[in-house]
Automatic annotation (TrEMBL):
GO MF assignments: hydrolase activity
Name the record gives this protein: Cysteine hydrolase
Lineage summary: Bacteria, Pseudomonadati, Pseudomonadota, Gammaproteobacteria, Moraxellales
Annotated Isochorismatase-like domain residues: 8-180
Alphabetized InterPro entries for the sequence: Isochorismatase-like_dom (IPR000868), Isochorismatase-like_hydrls (IPR050272), Isochorismatase-like_sf (IPR036380)
Amino acid sequence: MNLPNTPTALIIIDMQIGMSLPTAGERNNPTAEKNIATLLTLWRQEKQPIIHIRHISRSLNSSFYPNQPSADFQPELAPLPHEHVVEKNVPDAFIQSGLERWLHQRNIKSLVIVGVSTNNSVEATVRSAGNLGFNTIVINDATFAFAKHDYSGRPRTAEEVHDMSLANLDDEYAKIMTTEKLIKDMEK
């Protein structure tokens, strides 16, 4: 399996223990972690750049406040010592993190983005990536969202929230595809 000749970074957003707890709420894509792990294994085999994004909250009562088990990476998706880790305090992984500079220093122009949550950190990061000129792909079955009420107060399922977020990104900021489609495209 070969990735493009130029480096393509896999960016894994906020796959922390707190995101897998029942208290996080109703979510879609129950196999997202499996798909992320598949891509992570592939990127490691291909020796392509991997960036793990970790949300560190400034709020004392947050599950993502530093030095809590829920703020740690999920063990099966944890970074290896040589893999780059970016900590962020806002949804967008590009804001005050040095991520853009890190990518430019390595001449990385293509990104594959996975993680959580589709309508928050994934969408914010993908919008910036697209606006900054990165060739960006979002893997829709390796991201997930949580159920939420819309602005009018109507309850929306996790799948509805996820689908609307992907619709916001599709063809304007990124290309949307499945894990299977990405792997098939890479085999060509």
